[in-house]
Write a structure and sequence with these properties.
The protein is α+β, with helices and mostly antiparallel strands. Helix content is about 30%, strand content about 30%. The chain has 2 domains: about 240 residues, Bira Bifunctional Protein, Domain 2 (BirA Bifunctional Protein, domain 2), CATH 3.30.930.10; about 100 residues, Anticodon-binding domain (Rossmann fold), CATH 3.40.50. It contains 13 helices and 23 strands. A 7-stranded mixed sheet has the order 3-9-10-16-13-12-11. Strands 20-19-21-22-23 form a 5-stranded mixed sheet, with helices on both faces. Strands 5-4-6 form a 3-stranded antiparallel sheet. It is globular and about 75 Å long. It binds adenosine-5'-triphosphate. Adenosine-5'-triphosphate binds next to strand 10, strand 13, strand 16 and helix 9.
């Protein structure tokens, strides 16, 4: 059960996101659209940093993974071959008392999670979004917005293998949108209808599946743990036998202990040769691979890691949100985000906005740092309000140019997490910041 304190946390984050330009309800002026959210100036920067970090870690820093960027609409046959047209279903039941709707697979005792009332029999709905290609009525082709981003990777396996010099074992990575007509979008960014996924499909020789499966399971767990303050809230959960699809020898989810309970973060899937074989069958194309050394011909098996970017974003907010009682009785709210992910690395502040000399000196520092980092500038209201704003968007450091700075070219740097301050030479800030960011 979700207790009040825990659900209050979600509410506080939703309100903070709106107040500080992190995430907005989509189409808010029209009353909003359930399951759709827009990222504001701070949120889009933060999300961009998050995706960049993922791409750097799993593509740029590795020689065995390459990236692609596929389309949202693909040949409709893709979704028949993948099984989505037939099986991408959710069971929906309605509470007879309060008329709220729920996915039945998350409910164990046929009682409404909101009011305890009895539920109707579950009905099955396909959650692929439909669209059509072509403009002439009667000649339009039914198509689908991709229900999972990874299909483009299977479709391009042969293109990638033939056009690069990469050899099995290798991976193809992609970050991109997916669409699901979820019957019950809920918990802010946790379950939405339009979202981004980050996937790696790692192609291996069938004999090597166990080794690579274990490798990716551990690598992904470690990576997610490296992003949070409280790594005890992350675990691996093995799927039970009856959760397993027929071709999977095993399956694990990386899970997060969210306020509403342990919830999926990323799936580590044993896909075997299912996807390439299905597409081979439906397209009548040979998607096998010939080993350049042994000349053995086979369909590679796949270890898939598939996670949600928006879900990660939300879990990181849940992990980062901090409230602290100050001596003056006020509460300080701050986001203890990994500095690599924070929208801004530092905010440059002149102590008084009406003192030209202070503003000019601060501007110079700002423009210098801006060449290398994402930096904010704030010469608005009083210093306390400036710190509060930067704390709430997770900026790890604030740099203040004060009267002493005019004398000796030193500045203060204030730390977000413990509010400690140091004074350093303004010409050494760049170097200092690089060092801090490398520490993380
Ligand atoms: P769930 O059981 O939570 O619906 P799933 O098993 O259907 O997830 P996958 O198909 O494995 O999810 O998708 C991979 C990842 O994509 C998930 O681990 C999750 O992070 C993300 N994801 C899936 N559906 C949604 C959604 N509706 N909103 C946001 N993220 C999602």
């Amino acid at each position: 059960m979700v207790n009040k304190k825990q659900s209050d946390l979600v509410k506080k984050i939703v309100s903070l996101c709106k107040r500080r330009g992190i995430v907005f309800q989509n189409s808010e002026i029209y009353g909003g659209l359930a399951g759709f959210y827009d990222y504001g100036p701070i949120g889009s920067l933060t999300k961009y940093n998050l995706k960049n970090l993922w791409w750097k870690t799993f593509v740029l820093d590795r020689s065995d993974v390459v990236g692609i960027d596929g389309t949202i609409i693909t040949h409709p046959q893709v979704w028949h071959a993948s099984g989505h047209v037939k099986n991408f279903n959710d069971q929906l039941a309605e509470c007879k008392k309060c008329h709220h709707r729920f996915r039945t697979d998350f409910i164990t005792d046929n009682k409404c999670p909101d009011c305890g009332g009895p539920l109707t029999e579950g009905r099955t709905y396909n959650i692929l979004f439909e669209t059509s290609i072509g403009v002439v009525e009667g000649e339009k082709t039914k198509a689908y917005l991709r229900g999972e981003a990874c299909q483009n990777i299977y479709l391009n396996f042969k293109n990638v293998a033939d056009s690069t010099r990469i050899k099995v074992p290798f991976g193809i990575a992609q970050i991109g949108k997916a669409f699901r007509n979820e019957v019950n979008p809920k918990n802010f960014l946790y379950r939405v209808r339009e979202f981004e996924q980050w996937d790696i499909e790692y192609f291996v020789h069938p004999d090597q599946m166990d080794k690579w499966y274990e490798y990716w399971k551990q690598t992904k767990l470690n990576w997610y743990q490296s992003l949070v303050n409280n790594s005890k809230k992350i675990r691996l959960r093995q799927h039970t036998q009856d959760e397993l699809v027929f071709y999977a020898k095993k399956a694990f989810d990386v899970e997060y202990q969210a306020p509403w309970g342990w919830s999926e973060w990323e799936g580590i899937h044993w896909r075997a040769d299912y996807d390439l074989s299905q597409h081979s069958k439906f397209s009548h194309q040979d998607l096998s691979y010939t080993d350049p050394i042994t000349h053995q011909k086979y369909i590679p098996h796949i270890v898939e890691t598939s996670g949600g970017v928006d879900r990660t974003f939300f879990y990181l907010l849940l992990d980062a949100y901090q409230e602290e009682q100050l001596d003056n009785g006020q509460t300080r709210t701050y986001l203890k985000l990994d500095p690599r992910i924070s929208a801004y690395k530092i905010c440059v502040i002149p102590l008084a906005s009406n003192k030209e000399k202070l503003v000019n000196q601060a501007k110079q520092i700002y423009q210098q740092l801006q060449k290398r980092y994402s930096v904010d500038w704030d010469d608005s209201s009083n210093i306390g309000k400036k710190y509060r704003r930067q704390d709430e968007i997770g900026t790890p450091w604030c740099l203040v140019v004060d009267y002493q700075s005019l004398e000796d070219q030193t500045v203060t740097i204030r730390n977000r997490d413990d509010m400690s301050q140091i004074r350093i030479d303004q010409n050494k800030v760049d170097q200092w910041l690089t060092k801090q960011l490398q520490k993380n």
